[in-house]
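Reviewers of the previous submission asked for a worked example of the structure-prediction workflow described in the proposal, so we include one complete record here. The input consisted solely of the amino acid sequence. No template or homolog information was supplied to the procedure at any stage.
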Amino acid sequence: MAVVRGGSYDSTSAGVKSPGLVSSEQINNFISNLYLLDQIGNFELNHIFAHSQRLNSEAIVAFVKALCKVSMSELQSPTDPRVFSLTKIVEVAHYNMNRIRLVWSRIWSVLSDFFVAVGLSENLSVAIFVMDSLRQLASKFLEREELANYNFQNEFLRPFAVVMQKSCSTEIKELIVRCISQMVLSRVNNIKSGWKSVFMVFTAAAADERKSIVLLAFETMEKIVREYFPYITETEALTFTDCVKCLITFTNSRFNSDVSLNAIAFLRFCAVKLADGGLASNDKSKGDDSCVPIVKDSALDGETCVEKDDNMSFWVPLLSGLSKLTSDPRAAIRKSALEVLFNILKDHGHLFTQSFWANIFKCEIFPIFGFPLDSKEAYKEEGCFSPVSGPLHPDGGSIWDSESSVVAAECLIDLFVQFFDLVRAQLHQVVSILVGFIRSQGQGPSSAGVAALMRLAADLRGKLSEDDWRDIFLCLREAAGSSLPGFVKLLKTMDTIEIPDVTRPNDEIESSSGRGVIKDGSEDDNLQTGAYIISRMKVHIALQLLIIQVVSDLYKMHWKLLSVNIVSILVEIYSSISSHSHELNSQTTLLVKLDKICTILEISDPPLVHFENEAYNNYLNFLHDLLMNSPSLPEEKNVEAELVSVCKIVLQRYLECSGFGYIKKAEVHCFLPLGSAKKEELAARTPLVLTVMRILASLETDCFTKYVSQLFPLLTDLVRSEHCSLEVQRLLSSVFRSCIGPIVMK
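From that input alone, the workflow returned the following structure tokens.
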């Protein structure tokens, strides 16, 4: 590596490289130059630079340009670069710092380009020497106080930032970080506009691929935020944004989680300073106290002053950076970013206007959950919106775990409840997010969504209007029904699948013998397709049951607040899910194929009977509760007729399962034995029939009389069925005695 050496400037060192004999004229010029140099001593030569401030404005600019050109020529030697002119450049700049602003700007424009060009030199020794020279010059410049409305410090330090961003040398970058750190910590009282370039340097260091540079820069950044934060915004409030962007870059560092976590904590500290009026030192806020960012009642109507809106803009990069961090692949960083983001909003949200809150939800909060801006696209065929599928790895895999989902749901509801009056317009999207949690396949997110939705309704029950309740239940209705087309389409693929016939294994035959029937790859593919459909069916059933349970719980807790129109939506939800469960259990061919697949692959059957029982049980209890507790509703919605209709469906299904429903009236009645599978199904359906019996027994005489013609044939068929359980027979006897008996005796 070449060694940088000093010394006086020798014009003969820039000789022509072309070969050939030296002419007599060249020899004479050479002798003349030597004679001239002998006449000028070192003192006279230095006198030229020391008194350069006597040159006029045009002359000094021309002199600096020439000096930079000579220095560039000296430094270009790959083996023997000279630094005489470079040292003189530093001296000339120091001597001329007192020039008027316009002239000094022209001088530094030349010098700045020179320092950047040489700082990016491939010769490391030269680059290090010029950066150190720039450090000396900058240190001298920072000794002087910068006048108000001047931007010289920023311009003076900009070469450091440019070289830091463009250089590929680790040594140069580390030197720049150390130089800036030393200048900041030693001259912090004098730094004004220079903070912008300081943060540019540290931002470039934070994004560097070398761990040592990142840690070195953050060490100083930590000290600046902890001890010297008031100096940052002392001159210009916009410097706050540069500081925030620098910290956000540190949060993305992959080298050390402690750096990221500390940077996130510093962002919260910045939020506290911003909320406390830490930027109020700028001229605008000093001149008018009304512009301090405090939202009063008028803010609800969107009445804010321009300066207040300006201060609001400082929150945007801070909140945006934390929002993006919630998709960080590191669990600790995700959780910390979520908590800090929502804590900042909860602690300082009272400062925000209604319109600013709308932007926060749209740009910062909803993207966390992957919520589409167009609500019509929230639900898609054969799938659903799920907040867990929002933030993703670059490879497309979900990075949200159950813990992140729980934290996110809790934070969202805490924030929404606290500022409900300001963010009421976001209710539909918030409920859609919670329903998305409920619809996700993971147990953790589903439970978190249910708990959050229940808490939302409980905490806001006195504030929710009819439209708000309508939004909540419409989202649940959409969640229950939106996946049905895709699911039905999936089930139709079973029509084209042929499943091999196998004998159900008994006690003497092991189940593995059935797999010997598989003859070729196509049958194996059919089995795998069937297994996938069964898996999807289990997920689908679990979702439908969860939605109907949420609807039931919400109704039980808040039924007094629900209007007739809301009740109609609930009826639609119950009716839709119950009918769907009934249709699934009525597809005999499909059920046979599913049973074969489960037998061959030794997997559990989808809980279709349980699905139907739970759906109708919740539906019956809901209708019966309406009939008993809301006397005004039945007249308008004919709840009695709907309740009796559902009871009839349950009884008919039970009779079909017992084998009685298949015997034609014209045939002589005979008793047929039931298989083990039918006996199990009949036992599973018995509790639902018992519920029907109790409901019928509780009906008033006038009500029962109105529908006795529809119920009596089914009740008599139950009497004739030999496979009814003793409990059903006992309650059936009670119905005849308490309900039918009085009618007959009239």
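DSSP finds 33 helices and no strands in the chain. We consider this example representative of the routine output the project will generate in years two and three.
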